[in-house]
Write a structure and sequence with these properties.
This protein is of the alpha+beta class and 200 residues long. The protein has 2 domains: 1-38; 44-190, 3-layer Sandwich (Rieske Iron-sulfur Protein), CATH 2.102.10.10. It is 20% helix and 20% strand. The chain is built from 3 helices and 9 strands. It has helices at residues 8-35, 41-47, 79-84; strands spanning 50-53, 62-67, 70-76, 117-121, 132-134, 149-151, 158-160, 180-184, 187-190. The strands form 3 sheets. The chain has a 3-stranded antiparallel sheet, with no helix packed on it. The chain is elongated and about 105 Å long. The protein starts with 7 loop residues before the first helix and ends in a 10-residue tail after the last strand.
Length: 200
């Protein structure tokens, strides 16, 4: 076949135009696939820190916040609750919090930054059930040394008011303390470590 009479410039233009249009089309086709690799706004928000205002949380009460799809309990412990913590240490599986169930700044006798405010994830470490808050004591349905804490009705696991697990129950470890810090006296940021670690 002879190439006489063929406009080579026109052929090059058509080839280039087709290539450009095809490339743009491939880009549009690939965009949804590539964008699916990016986390969604909901996923980003799910892992974001949560600001918890506890200004109206009364002494001896508990409030629940959600962080990463988990319930986070914040308890304002009374001085009596804090004073009772050492009284149950002999009944606990890990009274010194030796297992890594909390950040280093919460590895102390109260498992918290401030003695009066406890922050922990409200899921039993046995099968993830949500234990009941039982600050009452003495309690007829609990052991004689019960000083208040948490009871999981699913399988009978018990925790004290610092989230430490009792001996002889199905839960293997203390309740988890998430990373958190105080932005002010009554505002907690759950999901971020503090700049200055320590117990007040």
């Amino acid at each position: 076949m002879s190439n006489e009479g063929v406009d080579v410039g026109k052929r090059r233009f058509l080839t280039a135009a087709t290539t450009v249009v095809g490339g743009v089309g491939a880009g549009f086709a690939a965009w949804p696939f590539l964008s699916s690799w990016q986390p969604s706004a909901r996923a980003k928000a799910a892992g974001a820190p949560v600001v918890a205002d506890i200004s109206e949380l009364e002494e001896g009460a508990l409030v629940i916040f959600e962080w990463r799809g988990k319930p986070v309990w914040v308890i304002r412990r009374s001085p009596e609750m804090v004073e009772n913590l050492p009284a149950v240490e002999g009944d606990l599986r890990d009274p010194q919090s030796e297992k890594d169930q909390q950040p280093e700044y919460a590895r102390n006798e109260v498992r918290s930054i401030r003695k009066d405010v406890m922050v922990m994830i409200g899921s039993c470490t046995h099968l993830g059930c949500s234990p009941s808050f039982r600050p009452d004591y003495p309690a007829e349905d609990m052991d004689p040394n019960w000083k208040g804490g948490f009871f999981c009705p699913c399988h009978g696991s018990k925790f004290d008011l610092a989230g430490r697990v009792y001996k002889g129950v199905p839960a293997p470890t203390n309740l988890v303390v998430p990373p958190y810090h105080f932005e002010s006296d009554n505002v907690i940021v759950i999901g971020e470590d503090p700049a200055n670690e320590g117990v007040a």
